[in-house]
Amino acid sequence: MRASLLALAVGAFGIGTTEFVIVGLLPEVADDLSVSIPSAGMLVTGYALGVVVGAPLMTAAGARLPRKTMLVVLMAIFVAGNLLCALAGDYAALMGGRLIAALTHGAFFGIGSVVAADLVAPDRRASAIALMFTGLTLANVLGVPLGTFLGQEFGWRSTFWAVTGIGIVGLLALITLVPAQPAPPSGALRGELAVFRRPQVWLALATTVLGFGGVFASFTYLAPMMTELAGFSDGAVAWLLVLFGAGLCVGNVLGGRAADRSLMPSLYLILGGLCLVLVVFTFTSRAALPAAVTLAAFGAIGFATVPPLQARVMQQAAGAPALASAANIAAFNLGNALGAWLGGLAVAHGLGWTSPTWIGAGLAAAGLGTAALSGHLDRRSRRTRPLPAEPFPPAPLPAQHHSAGAGHGTHPIVEQKSR
User: Fold this and answer.
1) Beta-carbon contacts of residue 112 (< 8 Å; ≥ 6 apart)
2) Which of these, 154, 190, 131, lies nearest to 1 by C-alpha position?
3) Structural domain boundaries of the chain?
């Protein structure tokens, strides 16, 4: 079990690095390719949209393949996409490589979440998912800062060469450490599609889009906010990302444990905390020390959302969770795209570097409201659910007799025999 989860975490590390590292390299990419920072920020949005499209398509395309085989295929495509990024000579080629890599992202995490959950007892599933996502959090602690440092020192293309190498290691780990998976039964795709008839699945996906969109609205423009407002140097951005990533690691573990204990109350608490910390961040981002402290808290509460959001979708898609799980990864990245786009729109209209964080707080509040609606429907469904039918009809109430010599409540058949 641990070896399999380690292999999944290595793949997650590579994918997380290529997804997030571009945030720390926006100025370098913009200067080298002669585009504006908001245009460079579209590399974040483009990647996220690639995940949105690729997650359901790639998962459906591989519905008849064993899950291990599909994970290996996805990691091979991921390596090819990052190789194209490393070789890119212009903005279009870089965007193309990002899109190819993004196509594999949602399906890998979606199928990987199902594999991880199947390896453990039902009451440990959220923690197993969190362990796989540890690769994603370590990407923020190690991969993104190191990738940012490489890009600043040796050019941003060197970062994508490094990610390509990580992808190859992940590919070998999947081949050697993940046990063989049986092929899905015939008709599995129909079952996977059928879960989307459930309104609660759609509410869970909407909660993910809005809740995690709040994280990325602020995170996408973290580098210019820290340098322009808080007064950090460009070289300090990598260390700030380490601090943010450390918060992610803590939040990921705590979010998984909380979700295993009590899923919906944990989700309410985490989304409410995210909204609060983003509001606070709009004020603390103007001074170095308060900004750094709030950044760590932002990382912790932001990534604590991931295990319960993923577990909620899989809970509502019980019986055929693979496609819904991948769709939720698409929902995470749709939220990423929405948050990055709205944040960039606010900056482009001159609303200042704190405006993306205000937008993030609003999105997190909307996610909390959607989760509350979903929980209300759960409770109402439990109240109105009919009781199970009894195997035999209840016995008739005993007849009451008041004649002389007959005791109260004597059954008529017993009374007749006694005579």
Assistant:
1) 8, 11, 12, 71, 132
2) 131
3) 2-181+194-384
How far, in Å, CA of 237 to CA of 227, rounded? 8
Q: What is the pLDDT of residue 407?
A: 40
Residue 220, φ and ψ in degrees, nearest 5: -60, -35
Separation of first and last alpha carbons in the chain:
74
What digits encode the pLDDT tens for the residues 266-277?
999 999 999 999
Place of tokens 């035999």: 392
CATH of domain 2-181+194-384: 1.20.1250.20
E strand segments, 322-399? none
**With contact defined as beta carbons under 8 Å apart, do 48 and 342 qualify?**
no
DSSP state of 287: S
Is residue 184 within 8 Å of residue 64, measured between CB atoms?
yes
Taking the C-alpha atoms of residue 304 and residue 298, their distance in angstroms, rounded to an integer, is: 10
CA dihedral 30, 35, 41, 45 (to 10 degrees): -130
- CA 352, CA 121: separation in Å to the nearest integer? 48
pLDDT digits (tens, 9 = 90+) for 193-222: 888 888 999 999 999 999 999 998 888 888
The pTM is what? 0.71
Write the secondary structure of 189-228 as one string of H (helix), E (strand) and C (coil): HHHHHHHHHCHHHHHHHHHHHHHHHHHHHHHCCHHHHHHH
Name residues whose C-beta falls within 8 Å of residue 189's C-beta, 6 or more positions apart in sequence: 60, 63, 64, 323
Nearest of 146, 143, 142, 112 to residue 130 by alpha carbon: 112
User: How many angstroms separate the CA atoms of 205 and 332, rounded?
Assistant: 8
Mean pLDDT by 10 residues, the chain (419 residues): 83 88 84 82 82 83 82 94 91 92 88 79 74 78 83 89 93 87 67 84 93 88 85 81 83 84 90 94 89 91 88 81 80 84 86 89 94 90 61 46 40 40
DSSP 234: G
Q: Find the length of the chain.
A: 419
377 in the Ramachandran plot: left (φ > 0), alpha (ψ -120 to 50) or beta? Answer: alpha
Where does 100-243 show beta strands of DSSP type E? Answer: none
